[in-house]
Request: fold
Amino acid sequence: MAFDYDYFVIGAGSGGVRSARIAAQHGARVAIAEERYFGGTCVNVGCVPKKLLAYASHFGEDFSDAAGFGWTVGETSHDWSRLIANKDAEIDRLNGIYQRLLEGAGVTIYEARAVLEGAHTIRVGDETVTADKILVATGGWPNLPDEPGVKEHAITSNEIFHLDKMPKRVVIAGGGYIAVEFASILNGLGADVCLLYRGELFLRGFDYDVRSTVAEEMAKHGVDLRFHTIISRVSKSHDCLIVELSDGSMVEVDAVLMAIGRTPNTAGLGLERAGVKLAENGAIIVDDDYRTSAENIYALGDVIDRVPLTPVAIAEGHALADTLFGGFDDRSVDYRNIATAVFCRPEIGTVGLNEDEARRKHVAVDIYRTSFRPMKHTLSGRDARSLMKLVVDRESQRVVGCHVVGDDAAEMVQSVAVAINCGATKRDFDRTIGIHPTSAEELVTMRQKAPEPDLEEAAE
Reply:
């Protein structure tokens, strides 16, 4: 059978664009469909605009710190509308870059919704086309709970980037990347922020020392942290929102941001007609080669709910295109030791195993940990602490985890991730001469092991 395309990609986010472009460079006839915006969540309502807002949120603190270094800073104010306009201009620029990359590679672009009509047939807008192989890379979508008033009055990370004015009083529900980052961003820009999380401590899955340190530091910045607490009801009252909480208290705010997770974006794509099986949460089930239950249909990125990070989706998309069209027999993605960051205040950078994971996976581990006041704040006078932690497999002495909380944590950990992926040992770290004076030098000067935990006491 002759198909219109060798490869049809549904979704022009980071993973889909990379896969389409690489497949086209390998000589495949490729098309891609996108109903919203090029670059997907990351470029438009995720990593990129969030990092720009995070930069903006630091300046108020920087102005205050400057006095300790002899600077006199006059009256300052922040213009939310100007920030959003400048952010939008940068996003428009990036959208254009993504489109030009696809066009330059010879990819046919459909700016319309694509729906599967069968295993090889796609309805895109008012047109129907066929493809030998199909990739679904439609990402995820923010969740909204069913508590009364939430769907009517709350916003998600999709909408917060486009608000006409910054809310001065905000309740944020959630304990992951988005919730913690926006709590810091809005707090840094001057808002009163109340962060709710249903569990004992937010950032589940991160090292406990990291979680507790960030909680302490965010509280110093004035973020109202309320754990074991969720929203019971949201109602409108004149020009504000009334948020009723599970502990019986009420909070009056200008906005409610729900950041309680994301669901794979698979609804209405016609996947059942094509024979594609889904998990209970709507994620597309794939094998190690990203193949779905339909032999010619593949999926990757957030829609498979494996590792929902932009660089992972890009790596998956590249690997799949190389495998399908580039003649590579063993092109795969290594999911071990993926570095990640949370751009809150203070910043988090982490790679490898946390302490609890390491203790479960290894017979014994050595922990090296230091907490200190950064040199910058000896003159700024700010009460701020940084944390650095290495997790070491005792038998092999390989460093299996690195966790940093503090300024430029992500920049530090990116380099450490290379060392960990190369199998560096604690001795390799020890014999590396540090750069002085920096916070990063602490990573190569820690010599004292942390005491072993009292397992009986921990069990109690």
In short: Residues 150-260 form a domain with the FAD/NAD(P)-binding domain fold (CATH 3.50.50.60). The longest helix spans residues 80-104. DSSP finds 14 helices and 21 strands in the chain.
